[in-house]
Write a sequence for this structure.
């Protein structure tokens, strides 16, 4: 389990990517790969952007391709987190009835909304193959990542 030092150094890297002058999607792609590589129980790391008509559209991600490239608000963990505009931590996806499965290996998921001011512009979604791996430190860390990448997600409006 990464400690505060590791999370802090990952946040430094996220700050560097955000300010790097890379295109928004290249920078988000680096963030996904960094988080997936650095944290052993982050098995799928991706971003969704909010589109018109209360819909989420898949952006950059690291991990297996997913069929859930568009998700309506209210559907699955991602859609519920968008609807309520709050972080969802699901330590055991088998206990969730409103859940969209990306892979049978996934055991748990955390979805963190990304805001630009008060406006929801996207989400950071992490799937894990471990049961109940997410601690308060993960949530704090990922909510800070969400704050740092907000300008990259709001930059491009999906169709
Ligand atoms: N499991 C999510 C769908 C997105 S995938 O995890 C990439 C959900 O229930 O909304």
């Amino acid at each position: 389990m990464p400690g505060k030092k590791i999370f802090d150094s990952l946040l430094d890297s996220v700050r560097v990517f955000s300010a790097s002058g890379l295109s928004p999607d290249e920078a988000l792609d680096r963030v996904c790969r960094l988080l997936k590589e650095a944290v052993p129980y982050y098995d799928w790391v991706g971003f969704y952007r909010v589109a018109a008509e209360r819909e989420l559209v898949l952006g950059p991600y690291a991990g297996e391709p997913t069929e859930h490239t568009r998700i309506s608000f209210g559907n699955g963990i991602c859609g519920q987190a968008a609807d309520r505009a709050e972080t969802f931590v699901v330590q055991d996806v088998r206990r969730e009835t409103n859940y969209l499965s990306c892979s049978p290996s996934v055991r748990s998921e955390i979805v963190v909304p990304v805001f630009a001011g008060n406006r929801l512009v996207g989400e950071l979604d992490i799937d894990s193959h471990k049961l109940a791996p997410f601690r308060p430190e993960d949530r704090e860390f990922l909510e800070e990542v969400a704050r740092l990448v907000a300008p990259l997600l709001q930059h491009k409006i999906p169709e």
Q: What stands out?
A: Strands lie at 44-51, 55-62, 70-72, 88-90, 108-116, 119-128.
